[in-house]
Amino acid sequence: xxxxxxxxxxxxxxxxxxxxxxxxxxxxxxxxxxxxxxxxxxxxxxxxxxxxxxxxxxxxxxxxxxxxxxxxxxxxxxxxxxxxxxxxxxxxxxxxxxxxxxxxxxxxxxxxxxxxxxxxxxxxxxxxxxxxxxxxxxxxxxxxxxxxxxxxxxxxxxxxxxxxxxxxxxxxxxxxxxxxxxxxxxxxxxxxxxxxxxxxxxxxxxxxxxxxxxxxxxxxxxxxxxxxxxxxxxxxxxxxxxxxxxxxxxxxxxxxxxxxxxxxxxxxxxxxxxxxxxxxxxxxxxxxxxxxxxxxxxxxxxxxxxxxxxxxxxxxxxxxxxxxxxxxxxxxxxxxxxxxxxxxxxxxxxxxxxxxxxxxxxxxxxxxxxxxxxxxxxxxxxxxxxxxxxxxxxxxxxxxxxxxxxxxxxxxxxxxxxxxxxxxxxxxxxxxxxxxxxxxxxxxxxxxxxxxxxxxxxxxxxxxxxxxxxxxxxxxxxxxxxxxxxxxxxxxxxxxxxxxxxxxxx
Length: 506
Hints:
Blueprint: H1 8-26, H2 52-67, H3 74-84, H4 90-100, H5 106-110, H6 126-131, H7 136-147, H8 154-168, H9 175-184, H10 191-206, H11 209-220, H12 228-241, H13 246-255, H14 260-274, H15 281-284, H16 306-319, E1 330-331, E2 343-352, E3 367-373, E4 377-381, E5 389-398, E6 402-410, E7 414-418, E8 421-426, H17 428-433, E9 448-453, E10 456-465, E11 470-479, E12 492-493, E13 503-504
Antiparallel strand pairs: 1-13, 2-3, 2-5, 2-12, 4-11, 5-10, 6-9, 6-11, 7-8, 7-10
Helix pairs in contact: 1-14, 1-16, 2-3, 3-7, 7-8, 8-9, 10-11, 10-12, 11-12, 12-13, 12-14, 13-14
């Protein structure tokens, strides 16, 4: 049970208000590398912006209240996801694909998920803090059941961290105490734990937030702007550098760039819990007290206002009062291997003497190997390359013709052909300078090509250059209109019997 808390409705209301403000501040700037120079909304909105940071939590709220659930499990939330979420984005789309292939529970988020350590779960922590105020252990357990539906590794730990932090903030205001308690719930090996501690130390040493931002980027940023570690650190940096002042703190977090709607919304929610009076009316006036839901959320009855949202969240807290959630297994974020596979695809590996961006007049390969891959996220070590390049030839079958998106992404050079006709070629330099493009069909940028494909058997050919150490590759076939992955396009789905999840626990 959570302890009695004075002014609980006011704190919960301020949590959601801060969430809306921070998300609306950062939303128009999502994916920008920064640094930015915001001191207020730009542009000034005419109402709150819809944001997936809130949308998924409204799905949980609707489903749990409607079903009368008294426990929260990955399977219960997974059912809600399948019914009500149609986002084609990053880990959200992977979760839908994996569910369509029969995966559930922690395996749904852990299997073949390049985006397992991104921000999609970290932004859903507030509902668990609000139903377990002042009880960070319960909030963390609820957060685990949520996060494993579409994440693994640090992507799960990030939501656990924020849920614990925000829960304790209902009864504690000291920054050091709050951080110490939330970080203690993460394993010592957690990158987020180490990165937050390093961010705090660097801030204490320099008191220069732009400099600390550069420190974070140099050590923890990835080519994808939604990767979780740097964004968690930006959120904490905004809190520290802003001294808890609402507008200053959320502006600093957002001005760091990268996943700006997420950092602003999460910090806004935390600061709302700590000090509801700290939210100046000038931030409320442009957006109001309404609740807006994104179009890809279907079949729910959302609250119309923040007051209704607050009332429903408190009702859910009472409904879950007997629940005693705990943190379960958390799988590593890595490409699927045979022992964790749900996907078995025979392919041909052709070793080539040199890397060419085109397929015209390609000489015969030096050697061919038959093998089986176990997912659509592949990782090749340098020693996998006999010579300077290799081709992966992947057969697939389409039962009906249609307009499709072919996606072939790599963090190195990649060239892709469909039925030996070139469809895209992207040099490694393009990958490194574009933090927005990522292996998700809706934002793959140069790594995506729209094609008309007929019924029958086809081949996808991916050409990779030998890396200095290792290279990652993700391929997909998606619906060109909806951007959703086609779950049955490649391979045979089905988990290897008895295969355990490789897990880390605290």
